[in-house]
Each structure stands twice: as structure tokens, then as C-alpha cells.
Amino acid sequence: MNESPIQPDGEVSRPTAQQLPVNAARVLEARGLRRVYTMGSERLEILRQVDLDLDEGEILAVVGTSGSGKSTLLHLLGTLDRPDEGQVHFRGRDLFVMNDQDLARFRNRNLGFVFQFHHLLPEFTALENVSLPGRIQGLGPREVETRARELLGEVGLAARAEHKPGELSGGEQQRVALARALFNRPAVVLADEPTGNLDPATARGLHDLMYTLARRHRQAWIVVTHNEQLAQLADSIGRLEEGTLRVHRPSV
Question: What is the CATH number of domain 58-84+95-248?
């Protein structure tokens, strides 16, 4: 099912410099990231000496051809995988000195994830799906419900709170997944092809919504996308080629 973008006119414009955070603090830093996979006798170097800086409230779009390592990079930055070489620092803290259990706690408190497929639980309502991070944290039922309803309102789905995923369109399902990712007020949100399964108009609307929320909450976002046009809406664009990342800021 197709639906109209969040904005009635369907237009999306890149935020101006005046809308970007002023004197933003560095929130995420990667240095010398290298990831090699072994396939039989072959060693495949996916990432080689990747450096990256991300400030509070900054939106970085990462583009590249299929198989260039975009998802691999996102998994390393999100501590879902460990690099063969290199470091990732979150507000100055070296993440990979932590064990897996501590990393899991770190992710739950500080990172949000949005994937190409929404990964919603089909037997749960939109409200219940968004509530899951709070329930995992052991928050009180009233606090969890209040927060979940607030987020559903922010993504334009207040009236759909009691609907299950099968009763929602693809764009609505992704907005529920977005609300769930924001539940714990993460400092960094990592999105892997979040609009890959959506029609162009709905994709534009979702990107506009993500960027609006990033500005409102001063959150840093890294968005992996194959859509060059939508990538131009970000503050910075990182292009992955032959295992290296080159970052530039589009002209205003």
C-alpha cells in the first residue's frame, strides 16, 4: 500500500546551516577500522583503514555500490561486530575494550537501530512493539506506555497505536520501527537502507521525518542508502569505495 509522505506537499529540502547544531560535541569517532573475512583460502578485505567523525546532531549518509561494505561499517560502528583492527570511541570511550555483555548494555542505552526490514513482532500492536525497549529495561508500565504513545505521535501514528503490523502499510511499519529505535533516547541512530523497500514518495517522507526528528532531539544519525538523491539531504555524505570512506559536505 502506498501512502502520502509525512509532509502534505511531499517536498524534502536539506536543512540549512542555520538549522545544524552549533558547537556540537563529538559523539562518535572511528579510527583505522579494518575488517577481513576469510572464505576458504581467500581473504576478502571489506574495510581498510576507515576513519570517521560524527558530531551531535549530525546526519551522515553513507553510499556505495552493493558489496562495498556499507552494512559492515554500520555493524562495526554499532558494536554488532568487532573490527580486525582499529577503534571506535563513543564520547571518548573506547568501546571494544568492553566484553560482549557490557557492549550489549551500551547499545541498549546509547544506540538506536533501523533496518531495511522493520522486524516488528506480528502478534504485537504498534504500541506494544514501540514499548519493547522500555519493557526490556524494566521500566514501569505507565512510563513505558506514555513514552511509546508520545513517540507514535511524533511519527504521525497516534491513531494507529492499537493496530498490528499486518494492518499497517509498509511506510507505517517503518515509522513504528523508527519510533521503537528512539524509545531510549539514543545519542546515535544507525539506519541500514531504511527506505529500501518503500516507493519513492514514501521514502522521501520517511527521510524527511528522520531528519526532522534528528534535529528536534539533537541526535546523530548514520544512514546507509543506495538513493543518491536522498543522500544529498544529509549534512555529510560518506562514499565507500574499495574499502575506504571519503566524507564530504554537500554545498548549500
Answer: 3.40.50.300
- The residue behind cell 556540537 is 24
Q: Which residue has the cell 561486530?
A: 81
Cβ neighbours for 141, distance < 8 A, ≥ 6 positions apart: none
- Cell readout for 43 is 581473504
Cell numbers linked to 53 = 567523525
CA distances from 191 to 7, 42, 96, 114, 251 (A): 21, 30, 21, 5, 23
Q: pTM score, two decimals?
A: 0.82
CA distance 167 to 173: 9
| Amino acid letter, 168 | L
Q: How far apart are CA 102 and CA 241, in angstroms?
A: 32
User: Cα angle at 198 between 194 and 200, to 5 degrees?
Assistant: 110
**Burial status of residue 56 (CB atoms within 10 A of its CB: 0-12, 13-18, 19 or more):** middle
Mean pLDDT in each 10-residue stretch from start to end of the chain (252 residues)?
A: 38 43 78 90 89 92 87 93 95 94 91 85 95 90 95 93 94 92 94 81 84 88 86 89 86 54
- What per-residue confidence (pLDDT) applies to 39? 82
CA distance 22 to 159: 35
How is the chain split into domains, by residue range?
58-84+95-248
